[in-house]
Fold this protein.
Amino acid sequence: MRIPPETPEVRVPRLVGLMAADAREAAARLGVLLAAPDRPDFHRTVVDHVVRQYPSPGAEVPLGAVVTVWFDRGGGEGGGGAGVREPRLPKPPPGGLRRELAEPGDAFEVLG
């Protein structure tokens, strides 16, 4: 893309850590546009936090350039932080809690 020499350049703001609404406001104030490939409803997103951006903060871009942002995945979106689920080796012994806990006895039994 050819940029005319009279096009002013702006510095990309740091958007990581901001909520979506604040990121949109900061971008508009500095004259850059935002795109969020992982959020088709980005214009309605409010409280999700930006976790990554490109170009990086401080980069000089032409006025009106597009900055791409990505958001964290909330608990209801499959993110959850559960990590990779692999079989544990060695496998735990059978029996579950019954094997680990003693059978309940008399609650008022006096130990002596």
User: Anything to note?
Assistant: Strands lie at 9-11, 33-35, 50-54, 60-62, 66-71. The chain is about 15% helix and 20% strand.
